[in-house]
């Protein structure tokens, strides 16, 4: 079993839709949870970062962590074509080392 | 602006050859990492370093080595390239005081024929 499992997608939505991206993790000791965005043929870039449980909002993006169910979510409101990318969830498990989900590819159609 | 650069961006080599991928960062970060990204496997950690002269094996280190002689550089060497090492390789760096905040390079696409 992988430590971080991510809904595989791909996901295709119309512009303006609300997008929900989801992951589960297996180790209850994980404390730091991240979402990275990766455009085609580019390196991942950090989008959101949360510590422990709760919500964190940044503009149209909301990251949610539920430690009781070991569930990580990213919500995108009013999705735009520029949001089309692969989204990777990740947790840090030890001093800078992160484990990643396989990614969900999102396409937002105009 | 501080950045992390990888070279070469694309390389084609033959089975059995030694290959070195370069990674250079100007953030003065202590932590540096090499990941490979493959369809169906996501990003997997190859090697990592927490500072000069420090190197450690990651999840998929067989057939790879790294060295850290200064803060800025962490070259990745494939001792004898194999077709199974065809992949996209990403270098990343982070600051110890900022857990989880990895800064990635643009990637090096390696094809082993």
Question: How would you describe what is shown here?
Answer:
The complex is a heterodimer of chains A (110) and B (113). With 110 residues, chain A is mostly beta strands. Helices cover 0% and strands 59% of the residues of chain A. Chain A has no helices and eleven strands. In chain A, the strands form two sheets. In chain A, strands 2, 4, 5, 9, 10 and 11 form a six-stranded mixed beta sheet that branches. In chain A, strands 1-3-8-7-6 form a five-stranded antiparallel beta sheet, with no helix packed on it. Chain B contains no helices and eleven strands. The mean pLDDT of chain B is 94. Chain B is mostly beta strands and 113 residues long. In chain B, strand 9 and strand 10 (103-104) form a beta hairpin. In chain B, strands 2, 4, 5, 6, 9, 10 and 11 form a seven-stranded mixed beta sheet that branches. Chain B has a four-stranded antiparallel beta sheet with strand order 1-3-8-7, with no helix packed on it. Chain B is globular, with a radius of gyration of 13 Å. Classes of the chains: A mainly beta (110), B mainly beta (113).
């Amino acid at each position: 079993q992988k430590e971080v499992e991510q809904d595989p997608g791909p996901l295709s939505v119309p512009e303006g839709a609300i997008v929900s991206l989801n992951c589960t993790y297996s180790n209850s000791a994980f404390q730091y949870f991240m979402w990275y965005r990766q455009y085609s043929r580019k390196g991942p870039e950090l989008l959101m970062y949360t510590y422990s449980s709760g919500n964190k909002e940044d503009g149209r993006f909301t990251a949610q962590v539920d430690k009781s169910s070991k569930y990580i979510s990213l919500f995108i409101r009013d999705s735009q074509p520029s949001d089309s990318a692969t989204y990777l969830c990740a947790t840090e498990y030890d001093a800078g080392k992160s484990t990643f989900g396989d990614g969900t590819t999102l396409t937002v159609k105009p | 602006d501080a950045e992390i650069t990888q070279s070469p961006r694309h390389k084609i080599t033959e089975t059995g050859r030694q290959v070195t991928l370069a990674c250079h960062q100007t953030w003065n970060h202590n932590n540096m990492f090499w990941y490979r990204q493959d369809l169906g496997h996501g990003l997997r950690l190859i090697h990592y370093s927490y500072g000069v002269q420090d190197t450690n094996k990651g999840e998929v280190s067989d057939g790879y080595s790294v060295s850290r002689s200064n803060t800025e550089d962490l070259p990745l060497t494939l001792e004898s390239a194999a077709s199974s090492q065809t992949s996209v390789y990403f270098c990343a760096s982070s600051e110890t005081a900022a857990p989880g905040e990895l800064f990635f390079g643009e990637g090096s696409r390696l094809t082993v024929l």
